[in-house]
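[job 0417] fold request received: Methyltransferase
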Amino acid sequence: MSTSGTTPSAPEGWREDNQAMWDERVPVHVGGEFYDLDGFRARPDVLRDFEKDEVGDVTGKTLLHLQCHIGTDTLSWAHRGAARVVGLDFSVPAVEAARSLAADLGHGPERAAFVTGDVYDAARLVPEPSYDIVYTGLGALCWLPDIRRWARTAASLVAPGGFLYLAEFHPITDALDDATGSRVVRDYFARDAQVWEEPGTYADQNAATVHNRSVQWQHTLGDVVSALAGAGLRIEFLHEHDVSLFPRFENFEVQGDYHRFPAGHPRIPLIYSLRATKG
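[job 0417] inference complete; emitting structure tokens
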């Protein structure tokens, strides 16, 4: 049986460890090639094709980006016509970097605002009570122990007639072997916190870092969908994609802007996306 509905464990100090880890990595991300902020300033749009298609035209709309990091995705939505974007992140250096990047692009706080704070406290921290679009990008949910609390918070910020859009790495990938993605080697339904000690960062694996302890959680697809439905949103669609943004498995090949299994390898979902509406 699954463990759906249970509250995962959260080891003492998890929030402080995660924040210290992310704070330290912001300068690496700002100055490195992975985010290529000079290139972003020249062409401020890093959104994935399926996100653009599934979110649709944002012209004249308000958008809230939860767990925005340094704001590149947030500001991409502004570039695509959103009337006002707001980003929230718990890392002070990340928010400072996002504000600086917005200023470089000529966006004042009335067009692009960034707020520091815990995502669970977003409803009392962001400047408006609701938004046409609440957006959460890839690699965000694994940092949150309580997916139902997150869903209630996110849903409360969606304006009537608006929607939440989520794109996230598919949880099935965490159950498979790292070499080929062909064998189940981990418990898909595991709810215990996963504690990691890893130097460097996905943006620069060789970066010298000190704060290397992080705590993460796995949330099944069923848990995420059920949490959003339980928070009063109507699931409009759930799509699964056979591409990834990084070499999740050792046998991946680069194909265009994405990483994929080699030709002939059985495919599995690597990313999922969903849209959930209110009212």
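[job 0417] notes: The domain at 14-277 is CATH 3.40.50.150 (Rossmann fold). The first helix runs from residue 14 to 31.
[job 0417] exit 0
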